[in-house]
TrEMBL record:
<keyword id="KW-0732">Signal</keyword>
<feature type="signal peptide">
    <location>
        <begin position="1"/>
        <end position="21"/>
    </location>
</feature>
<protein>
    <recommendedName>
        <fullName>Lipoprotein</fullName>
    </recommendedName>
</protein>
Length: 284
């Protein structure tokens, strides 16, 4: 009789272990949150969606319900993102995942019927009335660009930046400004110059009135070499720095980068101290 009781007890304990293994967090009632303190240690509270999401370095860190490890929009922080509602409904973090769906706006598992706030309208360019880490694009606040994790310019010594915790200058545009086959600013070994226009805003103070007051602006090569744009003399003489007269927190920087004759394209990386790292491909 004692042996039979012991057998039944062990069976019950085994079943309980399986349940606990299926719900490592004990099967919480909801993923909703308002701050990171509402989430587990390996999670953060995703702004806008207001749900706990798991942080990651690679997809191997993510559960089957949200297997894509990708950056949060406008930041460098990586989180686990979903691809289908069916997979979200296998999320073992909650006791009843049948009410979850994969948000088309945020690509994370959210309670059914969750809608995020609509896009904020704005006017002009630069930061306008948008939050830090955003810029005004076609009258709508959009996330500022951030270099993908695969960008070779930042494969080493990638600057850490977050739209919620950082406060450095924000680059919002990197684009082609021109091309000179034989530039007077370049040497004979690399006579061609790609002219790149970088636009950025800052929130702590105005940009300096002249280029002499500039500092902390870096060009990063595909070999991850960081070059001080101002000290290396990479700004186009005369027109390389232009502070917006009506908004001195907004500025434009024209950089020339010398390359061998016949070069068709260049992969560039830029960032300001404390600001977002940005990659771009500039064609001739």
């Amino acid at each position: 009789m004692q042996i039979r009781k012991m057998t039944l007890m062990l069976a019950a304990l085994g079943a309980m272990s399986m349940v606990l293994a299926g719900c490592p967090d004990g099967g919480r009632d909801s993923l909703t949150c308002t701050t990171d303190a509402d989430c587990d240690a390996s999670e953060l509270c995703l702004a806008g969606a207001n749900v706990c999401v798991q942080t990651c370095t690679t997809s191997d860190d993510c559960p089957d319900s949200a297997k894509k490890c990708e950056a949060v929009s406008g930041e460098t922080q990586m989180i686990c993102k979903c691809s289908t509602t069916a997979l979200c409904q296998q999320d073992e973090r909650v006791s009843d995942a049948s009410t979850l769906e994969c948000s088309g706006q945020y690509s994370v598992c959210v309670p059914s019927g969750t809608t995020g706030p609509g896009p904020t309208t704005c006017s002009g360019s630069s930061q306008s009335t948008c939050s830090y880490g955003q810029y005004c694009s076609n009258s709508t606040c959009a996330a500022a660009p951030v270099a993908e994790a695969t960008c070779e310019n930042f494969s080493q010594n990638r600057p850490q930046w977050s739209a919620t915790t950082s406060n450095g200058p924000v680059i919002y545009t990197v684009e082609r400004a021109g091309y000179e086959a034989n530039s007077s600013n370049c040497q004979a070994s690399a006579p061609s110059a790609f002219l790149v226009r970088v636009r950025a805003y800052r929130t702590d103070s105005d940009w300096p009135s002249t280029r002499a007051g500039l500092s902390g602006f870096f060009y990063v090569t595909t070999g991850s070499e960081q070059l001080d744009v101002v000290n290396r003399g990479l700004l186009v003489p005369g027109t390389g720095y232009n502070r917006n007269t009506s908004n001195p927190k907004d500025a434009e920087f024209n950089v020339y980068l010398c390359r061998p004759s016949g070069s068709e394209t260049i992969q560039v990386g830029f960032y300001f101290t404390g600001g977002n790292p940005v990659c771009a491909q500039i064609n001739r």
